[in-house]
């Protein structure tokens, strides 16, 4: 194997797009690795990862072979009956093949396959130097990056996400000569735009991270994020609180700065009268600041900004940060005050003038449907229906508010504040907010019973309405987020342990739609919801065959579905599981081929074989001992007891023939197998576990 040397590739640019930066860096890294592999250049990745900052993308590898592996090729030629004439001399076909290979035909080798013996040309070429291939490899890696709108600059045709200004190509301690995007390679990087605006000499790849750190650039994104968190938390502690550091905000700030420096700022306490979610959204989404919370999680009049420079006059930086945030806070306060003057009831009246969907009416129509469903679901959950109806009636009113118009992410949250101010019961106000939960993947489901009622009712109406109006998702198109709604519905039911008859609720939701409800079916909607659960349970490590085993029974309760799935998981690890699954599969096949209906009653007097009699007695005992467990939905106990049938089942199939000539005996054996199969399949279609 060729010797290895560390490699550094750095592409220096203008500031790259913030949200796209991590993806660009990962693509550049992956494309470079793939290029080495494709060219047969050995490499040692070690724990290498993409390195990047707002002005650079870098690939730093601990070891790359200085030359390719030997290039071996094998080209198959004509078979002997075509290649040689009767005198053993080469035909034109063989001569042409040899000429194309660049050798005499006598230098060709022979090989054999299923069709016979044929000529083959094998060659070995020494590998090219990595330094020779590297510039082209970098160009290919850049060309394959996901850049939807590349920029052009200067008087050339090169294009990239942002203009490129420098290129570092080092293999070992040597510069690799070459040009990429019109820039010649060298060993000079560049430091921080303001704190070290001059070239940075990179002696060897291993010096890269430290050299840039000395030039006030943290090129390792993990180090940069850790630095930001440390600085923000220290500043928040100084203010007597705790910093709110969301993953998304941290990721974006880390792509905005090369040398982060925290600046503690504040704002007037009067603004705290505004819903804190609006203020937090302004700080995080618009300005990329970090709010400071108190011990109870309430917003304090302090926040932390991250500068891309260690300023000599921090007070001026602070003033700038505080100045840009005040107008947005003032707007939020104005909207909030004006909304409270208007009131939720007035907002709710305005929903009659807002179209929800052409075929489904206005938002007021949707509100009425959801309120009726909420009453139905509340009764099913043994809750008082009136609070659920009231919360449903108010749940969309805040869509008419000025605050939600300015901050759409406050849907439900604003309604909770307005309802509380107007004296609505706490559980009603909270439910308005919780009806939107889960808001995103990984978000918690509604915590309160009334919130759960609304979350389920809202999603049921959205799903049934969407399907009835012909808005079923296709490919990547899902205008009404029906997939997300189906999963949110299922998660709320399962994770909060709510036992509901799903088909019956779907039927109720369809009934609320009037004539258009006939455009979809209970089965169609049930199957759509169950299909969302495939990925949900796959993420929890549930094998697909176990999921299919439960889905085959189509449980009407999703909570029951979950319990059955847990039981089948416990059953699958038992030593008897595979044999019983295979036996049940065999029984199902036998019953499918039986002529006419199979009797449900088994006549023990017709047993003629000892193994048959023993199985009959064992099945009787198992059925009797599992009836109560089935009724109590103790599916683990049911399957555990049925696992003990394996010896009798094995003996039956070893010693007894089912399809005998005597019709009475045959039909009785079929009835016995049907009784066994019905009980084995009472929890799940366990035949799906059979490989």
Provide an overview of this structure.
By secondary structure, this protein is of the alpha+beta class. The protein folds into five domains: about 5-70 and about 130-215; about 70-125, no CATH class; about 220-340, no CATH class; about 360-540, Orthogonal Bundle (Hypothetical protein af1432); about 565-690, Isoleucyl-tRNA Synthetase, Domain 1. Helix content is about 50%, strand content about 15%. The strands form six sheets. Strands 1, 2, 3, 4, 10, 11, 12 and 13 form an eight-stranded mixed β-sheet that branches. Strands 16-18-19-17 form a four-stranded antiparallel β-sheet, with helices on both faces. Helix 11 (about 365-380) packs antiparallel against helix 12, helix 14 packs antiparallel against helix 15 (about 425-435) and helix 17 (about 480-495) crosses helix 19 (about 520-540). The longest helix has 29 residues, at about 315-340. The radius of gyration is 35 Å and the shape is flat. The model has no long low-confidence stretch (mean pLDDT about 95).
**Low-confidence blocks of residues:** none
Mean pLDDT rating? 94
Q: How is the CATH topology of the largest domain named?
A: Hypothetical protein af1432
How many angstroms does the end-to-end distance come to? Answer: 44 Å
Q: How would a textbook summarize the main sheet?
A: 8 strands, mixed
Number of helices: 26
Helical/strand content category: alpha+beta
Q: CATH architecture of the largest domain, please?
A: Orthogonal Bundle
The residue fraction in helices comes out at 40-55%
CATH class of the largest domain: Mainly Alpha
| Portion in strands | 5-15%
